[in-house]
């Protein structure tokens, strides 16, 4: 039988005819059909824009506008017109940037526009709006927002809202409203922070209410320890640089208790001495009668 085999020269010429490209990115090698080109997908762009650059672009475009409400809202609507979903992360980052730059009017405009769209209705957004209204001296709007939040989220409202309202009233010298907020905190069972207790205590001291000042610090003494995170671990550290009224009150109470205890010991000793003296007095006539 005859066997048909290709000559080595013919095999070499076929390998020379097939040229395999050197670039690996644009080709995919198949097992049977050899290399074929791969084209980039239409729905994916090579240039990707992150939320940070989008937020910076939004801040730049908003700061160039005037303070007219319709103009700002129109620019924001046109910014999100081509988005498939509401760019909540981008808007939140833009709010944070404007808050760091203390552009309170822009913060109020963007926050109100976002809330009007039904987006970002979180406690963080409400607190940002409350802080911006207070910094922009819009006390009436801040009080209206506070009343609305207090009525809607009575038992779940975070304590930082109470602290913020107390600081707002303290800066403006509105002590009566400040005491009302503090009374609401105590009624709802919210423990105030050290700064709030010091703030209210200073007001009591200025108004000459020393009895309330002492009662306040007796009820909410400053903590002796605080917790910090050092290298990812929670470490307890003793508080320094604060007047440790708690220790003073404890020492005072211990002193009073020690005085009561020593007085009781002295009374017991005196009773024993009195009984011993009485026995001696009773024994003397017995001894005298025996001698007689």
From TrEMBL:
Transmembrane segments: none annotated. Residues 241-271 are annotated as: Disordered. Keywords: Repeat. It comes from the Eukaryota. PPR repeats lie at residues 158-192. InterPro entries: EMB1417-like (IPR044646), PPR_rpt (IPR002885), TPR-like_helical_dom_sf (IPR011990). Residues 248-264 have a biased composition (Basic and acidic residues). This is Pentacotripeptide-repeat region of PRORP domain-containing protein.
């Amino acid at each position: 039988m005859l066997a048909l085999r290709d000559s080595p020269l013919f095999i070499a010429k076929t390998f020379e005819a097939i040229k395999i490209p050197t670039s690996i990115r644009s080709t995919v090698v198949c097992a049977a059909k050899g290399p074929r080109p791969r084209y980039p997908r239409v729905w994916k762009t090579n240039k990707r824009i992150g939320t940070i650059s989008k937020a910076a672009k939004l801040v730049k475009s908003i700061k160039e506008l005037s303070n007219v409400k319709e103009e700002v809202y129109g620019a924001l609507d046109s910014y999100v017109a081509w988005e498939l979903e509401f760019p909540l992360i981008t808007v939140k980052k833009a709010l944070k940037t404007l808050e760091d730059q203390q552009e309170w009017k822009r913060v109020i405009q963007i926050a109100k526009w976002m809330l009007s769209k039904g987006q970002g209705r979180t406690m963080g957004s409400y607190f940002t709006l409350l802080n911006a209204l207070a910094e922009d001296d819009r006390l009436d709007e801040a009080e209206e927002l506070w009343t609305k939040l207090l009525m809607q989220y009575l038992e779940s409202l975070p304590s930082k809202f109470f602290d913020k309202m107390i600081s707002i009233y303290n800066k403006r010298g509105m002590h009566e409203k400040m005491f009302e907020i503090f009374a609401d905190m105590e009624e709802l069972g919210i423990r105030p922070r050290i700064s709030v207790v010091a703030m209210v205590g200073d007001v009591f001291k200025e108004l000459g209410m020393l009895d309330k000042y002492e009662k306040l610090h007796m009820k909410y003494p400053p903590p002796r320890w605080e917790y910090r995170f050092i290298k990812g671990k929670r470490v307890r550290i003793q508080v320094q640089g604060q007047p440790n009224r708690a220790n003073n009150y404890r020492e005072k109470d211990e002193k009073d208790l020690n005085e009561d205890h020593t007085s009781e010991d002295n009374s017991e000793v005196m009773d024993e001495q009195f009984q011993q003296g009485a026995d001696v007095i009773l024994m003397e006539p017995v001894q005298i009668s025996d001698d007689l």
